[in-house]
């Protein structure tokens, strides 16, 4: 693969500038689905205050608008399971004491099940034609999906990420991508956690040791790029 065609661009970031090209970089929005962001979904069934995630929606929408304007590939992921739960290991299904388990009926349909109303991406971030919509049964977007092949086919080598939750599916995906050789940048305002201290710790651990997992940038610095 050569990069001769497009110039290298830069985003001011920590621990240093993040270089990217429009044609080798994808925006990944992780699990911005009603199950996690709205009352009655999986996030609330685990005892979380889902309003804490709402603050990431508007920044993520601005980031999405920027990526679309740049002509970048956009990937939306959804944590979801098949209706018969054959892709949900007992260790996940039975863990904890949620008020509703994966597959149980709830006000937005069956919890975390593919195609149910609660599994949809929130309206402000709704995918459009040409964007990848990836259903994933795990926390990481590379586990048990075709994501790697889809990125390789399109010569994608770098990922700009937002989504929820910072320390679970976002960080897991970022670490999976890091091990596969992708440069990854997480946009601070476009990600959120039910535990603000976990978000802060995740941002810190990504950039520690010279960016051992990747880069973190402010939204304004991305939009300026
Ligand atoms: C969780 C996620 N937290 N998308 N999923 O269970 O982070």
Note down, in words, how this protein is organized.
The chain is of the alpha/beta class. 32% of the residues lie in helices and 21% in strands. The protein contains 9 helices and 10 strands. A 6-stranded parallel β-sheet has the order 7-4-3-8-9-10, with helices on both faces. The protein starts with 8 loop residues before the first strand and ends with a helix. The model has no long low-confidence stretch (mean pLDDT 96). Bound molecules: dicarbonimidic diamide. Dicarbonimidic diamide binds next to α7.
Please render the helix and strand layout as text.
Elements: E1 9-11, E2 18-20, E3 25-30, H1 34-37, H2 42-45, H3 51-54, H4 57-70, E4 73-79, H5 90-93, E5 105-106, E6 109-110, E7 132-136, H6 147-153, E8 158-164, H7 166-179, E9 183-192, H8 196-211, E10 215-217, H9 219-224
The chain binds dicarbonimidic diamide.
The site of dicarbonimidic diamide has 7 residues, from helix 7.
